[in-house]
Amino acid sequence: MTEKTSAAKSRPEIPLRSVLFAPGNEERKVRKVATFGADCIVLDLEDAVPDAEKIETRAKVRAAVGTMSGAFITIRVNSLATGLTEGDVDAIVAPGLDGIVLPKVVHPDEVERVDEMIGKAEAREGLPEGKIRLITTVETCLGILRGEAIAAAKSDRVITLAFGSGDLTLDLDLPTIRRDNTGDELAFGRGKLIYDARSAGLARPVDGPYLAIRDFDGFEEDCKVARKLGYQGKICVYPPQAAIANRIFAPDPGEVEFCRKVVTEFTAALERGSASITVDGVFVDYPILTKAQRIIALAGLLAERDAAHAQAAAQAAAGD
Predict the structure, then answer these.
(1) Of 20, 41, 119, 226, which alpha carbon lies 20 to 30 A from 205's?
(2) What's the number of domains the chain is made of?
(3) pLDDT class for 6, splitting at 50, 70, 90?
(4) pLDDT digits (tens, 9 = 90+) for 27-46
(5) CATH number of the domain where residue 111 is located
(6) Mean of the pLDDT values across residues 124-140?
(7) What is each CA distance from 48 to 22, 53, 108, 139, 295, in whole angstroms?
(8) Same domain, 224 and 264
């Protein structure tokens, strides 16, 4: 596993169960996006914004981030291939912005170049160095094949990778727009990205969108598949998807209680001189203990996040 610096390791974990996008040029959607309880909000400058409006939308999203709370606030910039990235970064880095989503990454150098752009903008704005984080989106065949190198890019800003399944279906030239609910046609890339992220010491990645926006049963099943594979959350393109993703990607309450029992009984076993026991028929040793502790910590973190969502929603309602 690639060793990250102590600065990267010391950062608090950022929950990304739901990553909800809103077109940066549509004022109504931008105004409402923070009210749906998503862990992460993405104001878009890229694919959801007409080419003719991309430049003028920069100022709109910069202004909007300062009005939002209760979530991790990000902006998706345009890819480096467009020539717009540096102008995007220069225009949007400001107090209130937590992160940038970098799309269509095909080489680790791209991550490092954007890291440098952000650093210059932070210095100009008087922000702490490294304050703005990065979510790196891999969404082409070449990007998938280079996923390990992209994940290991020399940047402590990167939280994790995101699976750009929509654009990947285009690059693969698949014969239909509608993705199979099982996701079998994307199984290689979808699975590989998890190993790429974790082998580089990054947090678990974020899964791509489910485009049948009113098929909530299908969306829920897709979330369950992604969670089982090892994804920590889901890109959401329709606001009601956020609540479903938050529920599916959170630890089950029964599992959390079992984990607490594992910790209690294993701790007692250690005092007796034993480091391998069974708890309710499940074999437990040190790795399983560590897993149980992680699940308990995640449940606590998500409870705090949900409380912040509730507070932000109440404040928004009071403002109305």
Answers:
(1) 119
(2) 2
(3) very low
(4) 999 999 999 999 999 999 99
(5) 3.20.20.60
(6) 97
(7) 8, 10, 25, 16, 35
(8) no
